[in-house]
């Protein structure tokens, strides 16, 4: 089920935040389209944060720190990479209005990215929107084997540490299904969304719900942390290692 927006109506951050709080999101017909339309799927893809499937091969890749993984270091570059056409994805739905509004949402602290690097080359990652204790994944990209899987694994670990309860994948795909995503009806999704946003979701003001996850909580753990211990306060100079991420993903909640 979709609802189309006038091609001449501008996307602004407040409009987008309110839309996500109601369970709808913008897309474009193609990356050069002048406008967007609103999408409200009858079936929604979500990835339970305690249900991420960590295969043995992916576990080894993460533990070896084959890639360097960062967060919010190259947001615009990730959006640009997601919008690029590729052999396996000749057309994308990220047009200039969507890229521009998400850049603004990033400046406001609502939109975030996970970047995967091979040396100094950006080879994959993802971006999305954090609202309350929900994270809405927008797009993933991979230019090296397993790069998008690594990005998603780090995202799930980050959301678990930060107190998030919902990872919205929008649409189910075979790739997401292999990593633990499931498809649920719209009414079930709205119940999860309501729990993640809290009682103020219906009267959302400036995109600030009554509950909030901490997207940067993982950064305060540092390397070699005890995953069973309370979150350390303050900041650290080094990020967690791949072994730490595997520990977080395999521990029992």
Automatic annotation (TrEMBL):
A Gene Ontology term for the protein's cellular component: cytoplasm
Molecular-function annotations in GO: leucyl-tRNA--protein transferase activity
Main localization of the protein described in the UniProt heading: cytoplasm
InterPro entries according to UniProt: Acyl_CoA_acyltransferase (IPR016181), Leu/Phe-tRNA_Trfase (IPR004616), Leu/Phe-tRNA_Trfase_C (IPR042203)
Subcellular location: Cytoplasm
Acyltransferase found in the keyword field: yes
EC number: 2.3.2.6
Protein family according to the UniProt entry: Belongs to the L/F-transferase family.
Protein name: Leucyl/phenylalanyl-tRNA--protein transferase
Protein's organism: Sphingomonas yantingensis
């Amino acid at each position: 089920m979709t609802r189309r927006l006038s091609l001449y109506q501008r996307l602004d951050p407040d409009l987008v935040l309110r839309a996500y709080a109601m369970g709808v999101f913008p897309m474009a017909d193609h990356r050069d389209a002048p406008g967007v339309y609103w999408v409200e799927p009858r079936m929604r893809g979500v990835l339970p944060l305690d249900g991420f499937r960590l295969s043995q091969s992916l576990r080894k890749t993460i533990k070896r720190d084959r890639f360097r993984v960062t967060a919010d270091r190259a947001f615009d570059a990730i959006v640009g990479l997601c919008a690029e056409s590729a052999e396996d994805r000749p057309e994308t739905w990220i047009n200039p209005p969507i890229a521009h509004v998400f850049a603004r949402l990033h400046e406001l602290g609502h939109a975030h990215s996970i970047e995967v690097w091979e040396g100094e080359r950006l080879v994959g990652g993802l971006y999305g929107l954090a609202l309350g204790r929900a994270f809405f994944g927008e797009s993933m990209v991979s230019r090296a084997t397993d790069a998008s899987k690594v990005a998603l694994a780090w995202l799930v670990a980050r959301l678990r540490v930060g107190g998030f309860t919902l990872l919205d994948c929008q649409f189910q795909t075979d790739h997401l299904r292999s990593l633990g995503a499931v498809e649920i009806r719209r009414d079930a999704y709205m119940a999860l969304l309501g729990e993640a946003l809290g009682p103020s979701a219906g009267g959302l003001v400036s995109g600030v719900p009554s509950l909030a996850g901490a997207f940067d909580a993982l950064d305060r753990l540092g390397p070699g942390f005890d995953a069973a211990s309370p979150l350390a306060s303050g900041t650290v100079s080094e990020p967690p290692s791949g072994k730490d991420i595997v520990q977080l993903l395999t521990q029992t909640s």
